[in-house]
Write a structure and sequence with these properties.
With about 300 residues, the protein is mostly helical. The chain has two domains: about 210 residues, Hypothetical protein af1432 (Orthogonal Bundle), CATH 1.10.3210; about 80 residues, no CATH class. Helix content is about 65%, strand content about 0%. A two-stranded antiparallel sheet has the order 1-2. Strand 1 and strand 2 form a beta hairpin. It is globular.
Length: about 300
């Protein structure tokens, strides 16, 4: 089954009065990211701390509950997620400590980070539709990557994190453009999207480093379109490519199906690339269909 999509040509910027070209806006966004005064999108401290404590599997789980409870809004989001049919099981989860002990540290970390990004990063006042597409795509890709990693024998929690964060550069770009045009008429998404898309890998690396993401996550985010790096197969990126293609198949791509091309993205993966990634992972047709069915069930449940 072909789950890739031939990438369409990028649209041409028609130019707003205050924007000379895509290259001009790309440079301006890049300069803002490189400025010492740049403030990245806010990630709650509890999410940062959980990234760290997850490296210590013997930590007291009650401490995790106290960390989450420090942020009542985040705690509310977490409880709504763990009470969904997928997590709740036969006996409903009624409090944070119960959720943590039942689901375990890494599952709770995944849930907290998803909730934190939904609240604080995947949020836009001026480009609501585009940001919501990015959010839905990132969340879907994360859950699909977690399922796929269980099939390939890779770390499902690491792949969840990569899936969730791989497009943070797109979100940061939209937020930065909003800030650039604060108090002015914002240019339409059709004019700023090519620049945001162009710079999103490098801006993703920057955010990952500013948030102190563990291990090689910054470089994986920055190279998430290329599973062949230096001639070596990157298994994590191969899983990500297939997960994105499945997300698109299930209606969770960045590009809206049947809509104008203004959100056409480099995250629309070529069918040949998806096929090469699948081959590198040794996924059979049966494996792939099982992952697609499990992904549909997971996304319906959450």
């Amino acid at each position: 089954m072909d789950i890739g999509t031939n990438r369409p040509a990028q649209i041409q910027d028609t130019g707003a009065p205050q924007l000379r070209s895509v290259a001009d806006l790309t440079e301006r966004i890049g300069n803002l990211f490189a400025s010492p005064s740049y403030q990245p999108p806010y990630l709650p401290s509890v999410a940062i701390e959980l990234l760290d404590v997850a490296r210590y599997p013997d930590i007291d789980l009650k401490r995790i509950g106290k960390l989450i409870a420090k942020d009542p809004m985040l705690a509310g989001h977490v409880m709504r997620r763990v009470q969904s049919p997928f997590y709740a099981g036969r006996v409903p989860i009624t409090d944070l400590n119960q959720a943590i002990f039942r689901l375990g540290l890494l599952n709770i970390r995944d849930i907290v980070l998803e909730a934190a990004l939904n609240m604080r990063v995947f949020s836009s006042q001026g480009y609501v539709g585009a940001m919501e597409r990015i959010r839905r795509h990132s969340v879907a890709t994360a859950h699909i990557a977690k399922i796929l990693a269980q099939t390939t024998g890779d770390d499902p929690h690491a792949m969840f994190l990569l899936g969730l964060l791989h497009d943070i550069g797109l979100a940061a770009g939209l937020i930065t453009v909003e800030q650039m045009f604060q108090g002015q008429q914002r240019p339409p998404i059709s004019q700023i999207w090519p620049a945001v898309d162009t710079i999103h890998e490098s801006s993703g690396i920057l955010l990952a480093r500013m948030w102190d993401l563990p291990g090689d996550f910054p470089m994986a985010i920055g190279g998430h379109h290329h599973f062949l790096t230096g001639g070596t197969k990157n298994t994590s990126v191969a899983i990500l490519h297939i997960s994105e293609a499945i997300a698109t198949r299930l209606g969770k791509g960045v590009t809206p199906p049947g809509h104008p091309d203004y959100l056409r993205s480099v995250d629309v993966i070529d069918a040949e690339v998806v096929a090469a990634a699948r081959s590198s992972l040794g996924l059979s047709q049966s494996d792939l269909m099982k992952v697609i069915r499990a992904s549909e069930e997971r996304l319906d449940a959450i």
